[in-house]
Amino acid sequence: MQSHLEDLYPTRISPEPVWQERKVPVLYPGYSLPSPLSAEQARQFEEEGFLVLPRIYSEEEVAIFRVEVERLRTDPEIRASEKTILEPQGEAVRSVFAIHRDNPLFSRMASDERIAGVASFLLGGDVYIHQSRLNYKPGFTGKEFYWHSDFETWHAEDGMPDMRAVSCSILLTDNTTYNGPLMLIPGSHRHFIHCVGQTPEHHYQKSLRKQEYGVPDHASLEKLAERYGITEVSAPAGSALFFDCNIMHGSNSNITPFPRTNLFYVYNHTENTVQDSLLTRLPRPDFVAESRNFSALEIRPERFV
Ligand code: 6CS
Ligand code: FE
To answer: Residue 153: which of 92, 190, 197, 186 has the closest Cα?
Structure first.
């Protein structure tokens, strides 16, 4: 029987949006040196809530990833899987979830010290994968991801207790200013905004295509954007973008011919595992949120060419 944890971030309860401050550090101490980041990089992540590491994967490695990504996109079995989400209008593949579990290449990549080592440093210790996904954002038809805090969803719908998780997005195509790059509000990770509205039953079946609950109200978004501005991340393929689980982010639709295809690994600290006792509904399926195997990743050097 799980002990009943206090809900530190009671979102989707109040009829009005509520702001509260983050309760835990952004950058966790306690990691042994040498660190994979410079002091300046660590400071930037703490201050802004995100950090770009340009071209950590070579062109040759990216080419290998893209062959696999294209194979997945066109594989009828993958397309028919519940782990594959289609775009809200039409039939293009929007996301494929749990690739760290089902795909040998992307399983190896999840433990690659070039990314897992940075996540472990930021979170201050042992980590496991809470969620992984491939977001295609195809040319012409890739639709937006509306503004949200990932932690708000992972807390409300998966039972993640606190903000001790970080996303790592690996850019598999150039993310330009025009093909729907990630937009972040730097500094927003320090505030937790309670969203209004209840979580619908089986919400993920809709929210992963187009999210309408667990999104902040316009007044809060306006206040955040006016206070901190909006930064878009344009960087070349092979780069890695680390962003705090609670930073407000979103991305626009892609009407250009150029896909914006990114891999995402969500690293969670092994002391922050999801707790059913925090949920008001049934837990989401295991392909969206790890619910059984919380053992620490064995982080190791990897090369893919
Ligand atoms: O609900 C989730 O877990 C997913 N939704 C979004 C918009 N970002 C995080 C994650 O992929
Ligand atoms: Fe997100």
So the answer is: 197
For the stretch 236-295, pLDDT in tens is 999 999 999 999 999 999 999 999 999 999 999 999 999 999 998 899 999 999 999 999
User: Using a 6 Å cutoff on CB, does residue 150 contact ligand 1?
Assistant: yes
Show me where the domains of the chain are located: 18-30+41-278
As given in the structure block, the two tokens for residue 240 are 């890695």
H-run or E-run covering 153: helix 150-153
CATH of domain 18-30+41-278: 2.60.120.620
What pTM was computed for the model? Answer: 0.96
Over the stretch 111-165, which tens digit does the pLDDT of each residue have? 999 999 999 999 999 999 999 999 999 999 999 999 999 999 999 999 999 999 9
Residue 86's pLDDT is 92
Question: How far away, in angstroms, is 232 Cα from ligand 1 center?
Answer: 18
Å from CA of 208 to ligand 1 middle: 6
Q: What is the pLDDT of residues 51-88, one digit of tens each?
A: 999 999 999 999 999 999 999 999 999 999 999 999 88
* 143 Cβ inside 6 Å of ligand 1: no
Looking at the CA of 212, which ligand is closest? 1
* 187: enclosing H helix or E strand: none
CA atoms of 305 and 105, how far apart (whole Å): 12
Testing ligand 1's pocket by substitution, the residue of 153, 184, 246 carrying the most ligand atoms inside 8 A of its CB is 153
| Protein residue closest via CA to atom 10 of ligand 1 | 150
Among all ligands shown, which has an atom nearest to the Cα of 144? 1
- Give CA–CA dist 27/23, Å, rounded: 12
Give the Cα separation of 297 and 175 in Å (integer).
28
- Rounded to the nearest integer, the mean pLDDT of the chain is 94
CA distances from 273 to 117, 164, 276 (A): 19, 10, 10
Residues 6+ apart with CB under 8 A from 191: 19, 20, 21, 22, 224
